[in-house]
Specification:
single chain, 352 residues, alpha/beta, Spore Coat Polysaccharide Biosynthesis Protein SpsA, Chain A, 11% strand
Length: 352
Amino acid sequence: MIHVNFAAILPSRNERATIADVTTAVDTAIGAADAAILHADSSDTPDTAARFMATPTRAAKVPLTGLARGKGGQILAAARHDAITGADAVLVADTDTRNPDPDTYRTLLARIETGASLAVADYPRHWDEANLTNHLARPLIAATTGHDIPQPLAGDIAISRQCLDAALRAAETLPADVAMCVNGYGIDAFLLLTAASVGPIASVRVEYAKQHAGSFLHLPTIYHEAVPALLHLTGRRSPPHAGNESGYRIADRRLEPAQLRSMLTTLDGLASRPDRYDSRPWSFVVAEAWQAVHQGCPPVRAARLLWPHYVHRVRDWLTRGQLATATSRARMLSDNHTHLHTAVLALKEPLP
C-alpha cells in the first residue's frame, strides 16, 4: 500500500473531560510520528487546550486556541493551517466522545487510502436520538442525490486531500447566510455533499452505539445551522429515479417517564403545532421545503418555515416511539425514507 501522510482535526468546546482520551485514540490510529493533530478549540477556559497539550502523542500537536465558536468555522480554520497542507488524508473526530475507538478512526483513514473521497462512521443511534439525521438529513440526501449514508451528520469522518481542497474552495463561494450555517453545525452536510461531487463516499459500520454528549438541548441551534446548509446543497440536485435504502439501525433503550415528559415539554415550548399538521404528511412538507429552494427560495427561509413541522415530527416520534418495538421504529423510519423520495420526485421540476 502506498504511504499516505495523515493529519487529524479535533474541534472542541469545553471538552476537558474527554479531550485526552480522544487525542490518545486518534494518535494510536494514525500511528506515525510524521503526522499532525490540530486542536481547534473555542472553549470558555484554557482547561481543554491544556489537557490536549499534556497528552503524550507520537504525532506533532498543534494547538489552535481562541477560535470563534462554531464547529464548522473551527474545522475550516484548522484545514487551512500549514500543518495540514501536506496531508493526503485528514481525520476529523468529535471530542465529546466517551468511548473513542482507535480501530474506527483507523478504518476511516484506510477507506481514504483505498480511494474514497470521504469516509464516515455509521454508529447505531438510540431511538430517541439522531432525530435530525433519521427524519430529515438521511432521507433527503438519499432522495436528492442517490447517496444513502446511514449517518451523514456523524462527527467522525476522514477526508481526502482532493476533497478537502474542494471544500475549502466551495466554502469561499457560499452565500453569506449559508456560510454562517456551514461555520456552525452545517459543516457535516457541507463536507459530505462536497465529497459526493469529488469521488466515492464510504460508510464504516460500527457495531456499538456512540457514547457522547447529548444534543437534545441544542436542538434549535443544530437545526437552524444544519438544515439551511442541507437544503442549499441538495436544492440544486436532480433527484434520481431509483431509490436506495439499506435499512435503519436503531439502538433500543428505555426512557424514564420523567425524562420523556421533560423532552416533550421542551418541544412544546419551541414551536406551536403547524397549521394542517394532521393532514399533511411529514415527507410531503420536507419535499415542499426542498422544492422551494430548488425554485430559488433562500434556504434559511425555507428551513425556518419547516421548523414547526420538524418540532411536531420529533414530538410525535417520541410519543409514539416509546410504545413501539425496535423493529417497528426501524420500519417507520424506512417508510418515511421511501415516502420522501416519492414526494421529491412528484414535486421535481426542471431547473431553468
